[in-house]
Predict the structure.
Amino acid sequence: MDEKMKSTILIVDDSQLNRLVLYELLNDRYNVIEATNGVDALNIIKEQDARIDLVLLDIIMPGVDGYEVLEEMNRLHFIDYIPVIMISSEGASSTVERAYELGATDYITRPFEKYIIMRRISNTIRLYQKQKKLLNLVEDQVQQRVDNNSMLIKVLANIVEFRNGESGLHVQHIQSLTKMLLMYLIQKTDQYQIDEYHVLLISTASALHDIGKISIDDKILNKPGRLTAEEFEIIKGHSLIGANMIQQIPSYKNDAMLRYAYDICRWHHERYDGRGYPDGLTGEEIPIWAQVVALADVYDALTSERCYKKAYSHKQAMEMILNGQCGTFNPLLLDCLCDIEEVIQRELENDYVRVDGQVVSKITDEIVENQLTKDISQIESKSHLPIEQQLGITFKYDLADDTVYISSRGAASLGLDQVIVHPANDDQSFLTKSNIKKLVSKLRQTDSLHTTVEMKFQLEFNHTKNWYKIHADSLWENQQYAGVIGNITCLNESEIVELNQNQHILKCSFTEALDIIEQLKKIFDHVRLVDIHNQKVVKITSQGIEESTEKCNEFWNHDHACRSCVSCHSYDKKGQAVKLEFIDHDVYGVIAEYIEIDNQPWVLEIICKTKEEILLSAHGHTKFMEKISQYNRQFYTDILTGCYSRRYYEEVVKHIDTIDAIAMIDGDNFKHINDHYGHAVGDLALQHMASAIKSCIRDDDLLIRYGGDEFILVFQNMVQETFKERLNIILNTVKNETINDYPDIHLSVTIGGVHGVHHVSDALKQADDLMYQGKDKTNHVIIKNENS
């Protein structure tokens, strides 16, 4: 046998004769390592723990004896995955009991028979190898479920962030901060009954802390100035609204994460001294997880830019929190915050949440420990108990018994026995003969180094068709095939598609795409797959994707390709595009989504007819278009200044072919204003500057806040002399603008302008270069080809 394929056994005994007897017995089938005392044994285990499959341990040894070795293995958690068989001449019941209490897997007294010890060693190693495979299988499932839950929660939370005008990173930061604070807290004190598993649930639930804001008016959420007392009361209502939303979820009472989410939603604005809301709780009346999220929320709010404030530095934020400027917090949590502030600064630079692998492994261990029997009396039995778990239908096939064992939950849902002897003769096969044949074929291609196979298939069960996935591992003993352990999950309930968050691209297999389209057809009026290159609708059936003669524009009664094809837009940007289409008096909403099916690009169109009488009311199309115009104005408006936003430039203005004139306007001394008077006054100065510029331009001229204190001004139908005159008027108007309560602040701008027929992007670059040339003098206008 290949040495690399052999299991490794560590023999620990101070007697050379005893070690020699065991070595001669085991050397042909196993790799054998020897240790003459407890100290050497522990050093070997620490250095080679991943390699060691079993320890044969004597009790009575000089110095560190066998009991002390077991105690240290418990302290360092090696006993969790390295089995120990005690071999000793001591046979007293008290001695045996103590060995078992310290975690020994088995106890064998000398003298022993060769067959007995070989059988017990073989069975123990086999059991633990199966457990390791199950650990890997379950860990994958746990990780997958964590990822899926996080994805769904982030979708909801990011909706709130978008409406709240936040950066898009608030949810990630809250989750990271919550996890870091809790992990340090449970290391610092055992006052709270929280372990790594609950840390994962709480940090996931924290993403929903502000879900109640989804019902708050945008105008209040995104108001740049100070809220009125009435407006603040409305904002405060989000905590109770969010808690009630969570409580209405059917699975709330049975889902620990949702219960954490309820507490966090309701009480993350409570304060330790009782001055928070909505219930005025004090001290430890506030659940510790809500306290942690409250502190994380305040820290991120201070260090992030909002529509009403600039971001504070980490140092400023820490000072404000510790000085009580943001309310009173649990002193123990403030100590944790101070102790890990360097870690916080480093971790938040990454802009994403990492699920701690050790946390997932911890959860995996708990699942397997609760579900896999550890009764040593079962090791020598041929009748193994079924392996229980709640992550799908788990099964095990034992070749020696020719028997399938199914988890109790799986057997109940399938209407099968938990134990099926000679399964090939069983007529009630859930998988069907053809699928079993495919699975067997894949398993025959495995070996002891490459054990994993995966397979997807469709079945009708309980009169419902679903797609299922098998994840299975072949089991091997001494390079001989011994059976299979696997898990079956319903794809319709777990992972249907892969969403690449970095590129926002929907990717799936053909079978998954077929199922997606079938499910969507149950909801929407029309669902179709479009080939952009041929501008045709293609047919997707169980046999594959087939060409069609149907042009995609025929549905809209067009005899040519649409001028602004929503699918083309979706294809070009490899994402989603939305459009309204009219057929006579009917209005249709169209969502086009770029999708890659088995790595081939397509566009998925979802079409839904809108009930016009509800959408348009009695005023018909006029009111409808007014609503669209109003929406566009809100969507493309900079909240602080009321000008057009950077988004408007990128999505609309940037694509204008020609313009008459463009100017780049930059404030001269806004850094000084922000540093000297604070960001709130800086925002006020920006508003005055924008107002002064607006007073000098026409209604159809475009004023865009490009970023910070930079503005773009776009003109049409303007001659060069008028352009020059208008820019100088803007220069003087801004200079003469005054700010009440701040007479010492003097505004000024530098302007670079370009006149003539130009593409917008080229003209803007030239105007920007001219503006920076004028910065040497400040309060200055430079126009292309002129010296003034």
